[in-house]
Every structure is written in structure tokens, then in C-alpha cells.
Amino acid sequence: MEERLQSLKDYLFTEETWIQLGLTFFKVILILLLTAIAVKFGKHIIQKVFAVRQRSPLGYSERRQNTLLKLLQNVLTYVIYFSAIIAILTTFGIKVAGLLAGAGIVGLAVGFGAQSLVKDVITGFFIVFEDQFAVGDQVQIGTANGIVQEIGLRTTKVKSYTGELHIIPNGSILVVINYSIYNSLALIDISIAPENDIPSMEKNIEEFLEGLPNRYEELVKTPSYLGVQSFDASEIVVRFTAETLPTKQNSIARKIRRDLIEFFELKGIKIS
Would you write out the chain's pLDDT as a tens digit for each of its 272 residues? Predict the structure, then answer.
């Protein structure tokens, strides 16, 4: 026992040992530094490539480009980090080949436990390549409703309008409502007093509606006046519709409602 302790002391307190430890520490720091530079530089190169593609006359979809950009940056990060771990293990004298072979055996043992991870990754690829939704889309996934921030290999991140970030495993995504694919429809109901002259109002309103697309670029075409939606002794509700660009229906509805109220007041039409 004493001989072993003495041999350990002799090993630890030799100049050669400390030089070796210093070189190993220096190599690890260098690997970590190069890893950080490689990740940052790689992401920058990918971003530049996609920026060139977006300026191309071929007309690539911007929303799909943003999705692929985030995905490729994530894949690059994983690959570089994995390579850095292998390099650090090699620096410490660990035989990586044997370690990977052992990991293969262990992988078989825990394979059933990793089924959810595999499911997440496969589902993530289907989401991207089937273009189910993209970065920047307004979606509803389960109880999460908001803007897609990132589609990764394993998870999808959705930011709600009140600031919460929902991190959803791709394998758990069963039903998606995507509000950003097709044009939206805004419904505007205005309550007016029953004593108003409805036929006269309808004649004036068409000219007013025709001028709205020039004021709001979110409008796809001229809004429509549908007529009386409901009425009772105290009010008459008239309805308008407006086709807008995807997800712009709420903001346009507020603007058109404001403009209609101002127009009615200008024409002497009483608001209920």
C-alpha cells in the first residue's frame, strides 16, 4: 500500500506530469474556443447562403427559407458539439472507437427508452419537408397559440402573444391549425339606430368601401357590404367583410370599424 502511494506521489509531483496536464488543459481550451468560432462562423455562412437564395429570381418561399435556415443551423451546432466532445475525449487519452462500440451495445439496451426521441426527430423532418408550418407562421398546436419561433430536430418553439414560449416535442404534435397559409376574412359588425335611412346609407357606402384598398395594403380586395345582419327595436346591425393577407384580419377589422364610424358620423348616420 505504501509503495503504491509513493509511486502515485512520484507521478504527481514530477515536472513531466505537470507539463502533460498543462498541455492537455491548453488543448481542451483550444478545442472549446475553436468550437465556439466554428459554430458562430458556420451559422453566419448558412445565413449568407440563404440571403443570396432569397434574392434569387427563382422565387423561393421566404417562410420555408427561414425554417430551413433555423434547422440547418441547429444540425450544424449538434455536429460541431459532438465533434468537440470526441476531440476532448481523445485529448484525455480515451479510446473513442472502443467507447463508441460500447455505446452501441448500451444503445441497444436503452433503445426502447429512446423511442420518444426518435419519434420527435422523425416527426420534425416530416414537419419541415411537408411544409406543415414554418418559422413566422401563426399556428395553434394543442393549447399553444402564437408565432412559430423555431423548428428543431426534436422540439418546436411557439411564442404566444402574451410572451410565453411553448416548447413542444415534435412527436406530440398531432393536429396543427395554421393561420398563415391562406388569406383571412375580417368580419365587421356596426350597430346603427333604427331610424336611419338604410337604402340611402347603402348607396353611399359602396363608394367608401372601394377606396379602402388604396389605404390599407393588407386588404386583398375591396371589402363587401353584406347587409342587415340582425335588428330589434333599439338597433340595426349591418355587416361588412374584408379579405386580408394571412393573420391580418383583426388589425384590419379594427381599422375599418373606426373608418366606418367616422364615415357614418360624417353622413349623419346615427350609431347605436
Answer: 555 655 655 555 566 766 777 788 888 889 889 999 998 998 888 888 777 766 655 555 666 677 777 778 888 888 888 888 888 888 877 776 665 555 554 454 445 555 777 788 888 888 877 778 888 889 999 899 999 998 887 889 999 989 999 999 998 998 999 988 889 999 999 998 888 888 888 888 888 898 899 999 999 999 999 988 888 888 889 899 999 998 899 999 999 999 999 988 888 888 87
**What CATH number matches the domain at 2-94, 2.30.29, 1.10.3110, 1.10.287, 1.10.3470?**
1.10.287
Which residues, in sequence order, are bridge partners of residue 187?
Answer: 241
Q: How far is Cα 258 from Cα 215, in angstroms, rounded to an integer? A: 13
Identify the bridge partners of residue 92 per DSSP, sorted by sequence position. none
